[in-house]
Amino acid sequence: MPVKVPASLPARGTLEAENVFLMEEPRALQQDIRPLRIAILNLMPTKIATETQLLRLLGNTPLQVEVTLLHTASHEAKNTPAEHLLEHYVSFAEVRDQTFDGLIVTGAPVETLPFEAVDYWPELAELLDWARTNVFSSLFICWGAQAALHRYYGVPKHPLAEKLFGVFPHRTLARHERIVQGFDDVFFAPHSRHTETRREDILAEPRLELLAESDEAGVYLIQSADRRQVFVTGHSEYDPGTLQGEYARDLGKGLPIGIPKNYFPGDDPTREPLVRWRGHANLLFANWLNYFVYQEAPFDLGLLPVEGRQA
């Protein structure tokens, strides 16, 4: 997928080296098509790494995508240069009157806090409510998925006895659904979290459908009954070395952390991690963009068929 990104975005050099199809704005304007407008609310502290991971996956289908990077105005990022945010990000207030084909909300390292104790929760809650009327399809990742499930459906998150950390096998529960088209019988995905969404809470909500789960990692993939919202509890977007970096970080801080499961060959942290989730990640994002966004969103985004908006 040709993704429109500015030449100054740090991710550009990385993705060009990987032969990901990127497009500068002058060339994009010459194409007589309407690009998919995708907003990404990046809540991760490592914003540059996360935006690179997501743009890599958005660049893997033959559609043109125009990405708008969002940050929370009510929270000061401590790990990303202010100049980067000023040049490449906008706040929710700046897009409040706009409409988008798709929205991605990332995870965030705040999962042990009650939702309402997160300093930017009021802003996030407002954005989630706005997405009902101004976004056709939304994809929520890890804590972003927990936050959206809580806001939209009252689904709680539950603390785990220890951090769920590693790469785990999952199985598909509903093969007829388009978001899981092409998934293997068993597929792998990374997880890194201290809380969980429980199966019984999802099954008790008739407006939600559980699509994939893991014996060890639990609930993984959920969609809303109208197929306008997708919730992913893991991190399929992670780079090969992301869990390795988190492991080294926590060890350095003296935090209780085990070796990430099913990640290092022979559980030996001196060896290169074994990547088993790349194919799944590309398929998940491609299915979302194709079946949930491109095939369904109206050409005129002013005609979004969502609650609260008049067609």
From TrEMBL:
Q: What is its EC number?
A: 2.3.1.31
Q: Where is this site: Important for acyl-CoA specificity?
A: 111
Report if keyword Cytoplasm is assigned.
Answer: yes
Q: Do you know which SUPFAM superfamilies this protein is assigned to?
A: Class I glutamine amidotransferase-like
Task: Provide the protein's localization.
Answer: Cytoplasm
Q: Does the keyword Magnesium apply?
A: no
Tell me which residues this entry annotates as catalytic.
Answer: 142 (acyl-thioester intermediate), 235 (proton acceptor), 237
**Which catalytic reaction applies to this protein?**
L-homoserine + acetyl-CoA = O-acetyl-L-homoserine + CoA
Q: Give the top-rank taxon of the lineage listed in the UniProt record for this protein.
A: Bacteria
Task: List the Pfam families.
Answer: HTS
Q: Which residues are substrate-binding?
A: 163, 192, 249
> Which keywords does the record carry?
Acyltransferase, Amino-acid biosynthesis, Cytoplasm, Methionine biosynthesis, Transferase
Show which residues form the site (Important for substrate specificity).
Answer: 192
Biological or metabolic pathway of the protein: Amino-acid biosynthesis; L-methionine biosynthesis via de novo pathway; O-acetyl-L-homoserine from L-homoserine: step 1/1
Q: What class of enzyme is it?
A: transferase
Similarity comment text for this entry: Belongs to the MetA family.
Role: Transfers an acetyl group from acetyl-CoA to L-homoserine, forming acetyl-L-homoserine.
In its UniProt entry, what is this protein called? Answer: Homoserine O-acetyltransferase
Native source organism of the sequence = Geothrix edaphica
Give the taxonomic lineage as stored in the record. Bacteria, Pseudomonadati, Acidobacteriota, Holophagae, Holophagales
